[in-house]
Amino acid sequence: MRRNSRADPRTERTADAGEGGPACVTLVEQLLTHPILEKLRAAQSVLRLTERFGGPRTELACRRALEYGDGRYRTVKTILERGLDAEATPERGFDRLTDAYRGAGRFCRDTRPLLVH
Predict the structure, then answer these.
(1) Separation CA 84–CA 64 (nearest Å)
(2) Residues 103, 109 contacting (CB under 8 angstroms)
């Protein structure tokens, strides 16, 4: 049995992802541990985005992709190309509820008379 003297490329890619940040590492690990498909090429492509857009931006894009549950290379690339990594995610995009959710909406009515037994 012949053994290859080179290191496992998946291990190398995971180590390289550490330069991007923790979200980058998580995304690359998800790509490399897929139970059915070998996604080494996608993991390498995500790491190349670090060279093109920089580590901090790629980290933010990976974090945003993971928050939406879509850790594909194409998703991370689109986030970076459109500059969405700098925008706040919708969950954090507002800090207070609108009047409609606080009971002062235009078409709200008092429900107490309706709930009397």
Answers:
(1) 9
(2) no
Q: Which two tokens stand for residue 2?
A: 């012949």
Digit-by-digit pLDDT tens for the chain (117 residues) are: 344 545 555 555 555 666 678 888 888 888 888 777 778 888 889 989 989 999 899 999 999 999 888 889 999 999 999 999 888 766 655 556 566 566 556 666 677 777 876
| DSSP single-letter state for residue 83 | T
Alpha helices in the chain (DSSP H): 9-17, 22-32, 40-53, 55-67, 73-81, 99-102
Residue 11 and residue 26: Cα distance in Å, rounded? Answer: 13
CA separation for the pair 30, 10 (Å, rounded): 11
Closest CA to 93 of 67, 57, 58: 67
Answer left, alpha or beta for residue 8, where phi above 0 means left and psi between -120 and 50 means alpha.
beta
Contact between 62 and 43 under an 8 Å Cβ cutoff? The reply is no
Pair of tokens at residue 16: 């390289």
